[in-house]
Write a structure and sequence with these properties.
2 domains, 315 residues, homodimer, alpha+beta, five-stranded mixed beta sheet, 10 helices, 33% helix
Chain lengths: 315, 315
């Protein structure tokens, strides 16, 4: 895979004068009105790179939109409009109908309207541009994490990565777990909540698409800070914890949950928000001065997650 | 090529409640403020479908954005922001740098800022989402052409199609003409003008991407009208006229000029606007009640452009 950040940022980054935030976060921001920003992002899913040729088209329709929804949520925005560009090798109407069913189920779930796009002949590829709205005062930038902020994640991590591992190379694991893992991979579930309410409790956010460590690193780079992560606090399926398959959680990716940072003073409100809105929120660490990520085990020692083979699921 | 309109409109068209105009025109419209719309569109260019593998990357960078600019102009809007999603088979930095040079030259020319996007691994494909602004009172919809409206086109038609024909199968034609034709194909030049000033003179518009006849047919379908086109009035290179290679003009496509309709009362103002702004504008026909396109030759007879082989360039 290309280092997309490097290429985009080096070659395509130009100073933008009229907008609030351009390339370099999950989405760009431009003025909507005195109190709100438009949040805009575009993500592409390609066959063989982002999904396999035998992926269920309905799940693919869902996922194509869900990963874009996730970008809007991570800025503290609520998604609103989408444009869908599809390249397909042939006009397989059955496939396209199934894809559209999944797409519109996801659109309905997150309150998104499809307003445009095109369908062209080409290698199978889905490119979606999504627009959302965020309150200016609560917008969640990667660059806005503060020293000593608590680090939080939504949902559970590692399941989608487990599904991908299993598809690539079968291994011994409970059938129900594998079924859920493949579902997590093919039909990710970003949180479904009014982000205008959630965002005011936090300072910064990123969505977990590449994996906890690489995505947290983006926050570190933009905020010029470090992070301590408590391994035992990471929300993961029991099987992953018992098998110490931590690489799935730390570097697996495809979770499409949010990593957020918040002042310690928000702690109680976040717990309350989590209960009232039935959004699983886990406090997993804190921002530090070190400019590094330290994964701290329950015995107080550091996990050497950079070493290959620290667990047998690490590549 | 897929009939994109059919697939998009049948499978993806849903009634949108909160927006002014969704799928079915060159771009979608949603509220910007009391007087303006945001105009938004997304177009994809795929290798082997929209461009050849040996296309000059700088020209491709230009064209990728120019075809999207054209969609905004055709709604009466001025382009403003773009998001660029690129799929590339490998990280060829030289190629990407050249592509970006062309992209940014076009962006500078039309006043567009790049605000986001992504770069991923995949079959070579460029998907651009573009945002522009239009005055609500002057927005140019395909559905708004009126009976007896004059039909106008900007620029010159048929040159890009001539270039494509030549690349596919060489034929005897002046070298300078072929050079210009390939340039027209690879580096299209949508008009560069303040559309807020131009749009108030016209009722409707479409950009000429598929060819004069197929694109005019979209206007006819949306407006429930017909059109008389005067063959001799169509702006085309002398060589095309002398060789009666009319199919290049009527069905060639890739012109990225505008077809507009205007009340007869605008005639003088349009001529003045054309002179002051140095935009070539040709009056080529009128909207009729027939629901058909009639191409009228100088002797008053109809050109049977549906018949194969009406000129030796017709497919």
């Amino acid at each position: 895979m290309l280092k997309e950040f490097e290429i985009i940022e080096k070659i395509f980054k130009k100073t933008s004068s009229s907008i609030f935030l351009g390339i370099g976060d999950d989405a760009a921001l431009f003025q909507k009105n005195k109190k709100e920003f438009w949040v805009i992002s575009q993500d592409t899913l390609n066959i063989d790179t982002h999904f396999l040729s035998n992926t269920d088209p309905e799940n693919l329709g869902w996922k194509s939109l869900a990963v874009n929804v996730s970008d809007i949520l991570s800025m503290g925005g609520n998604p609103r409009y989408a444009l869908l560009s599809m390249s397909v090798p042939s006009a397989n109407q059955v496939w396209i109908k199934k894809f559209s069913n999944g797409f519109f189920k996801c659109a309905k779930n997150y309150g998104v309207e499809l307003i445009g796009g095109d369908t062209t002949k080409g290698s199978l590829s889905i490119s979606i541009c999504i627009l959302g709205e965020a309150l200016q005062k609560n917008v969640l930038l990667r660059s806005n994490a503060k020293l000593n902020d608590d680090i939080w994640v939504t949902g559970e991590l590692g399941l989608a990565a487990l599904g991908l591992k299993y598809i690539k190379k079968k291994f011994d694991a409970p059938k129900v777990l594998i079924k859920n893992a493949i579902k997590a991979l093919e039909k990710p579930q970003p949180i479904d909540v009014d982000m205008k309410k959630l965002a005011k409790l936090f300072n910064s956010a990123i969505d977990l698409s590449d994996g906890l460590v690489p995505d947290l690193n983006h926050v570190l780079n933009k905020s010029a800070l470090g992070a301590d992560i408590f391994l035992e606090s990471l929300p993961m399926p029991k099987w992953i914890r018992e098998n110490k398959a931590y690489s799935l959680v730390l570097k697996g990716g495809d979770d499409y949950q949010l990593l957020l940072t918040a002042p310690k003073s928000s702690y109680k409100k976040i717990i309350e928000f989590s209960i009232v809105n039935q959004i699983k929120m886990s406090h997993i660490g804190a921002m530090t001065k070190t400019k590094k990520i330290a994964i701290i085990k329950s015995d107080g020692r550091l996990l050497n997650y950079k070493e290959k083979g620290y667990d047998h699921f690490a590549e």
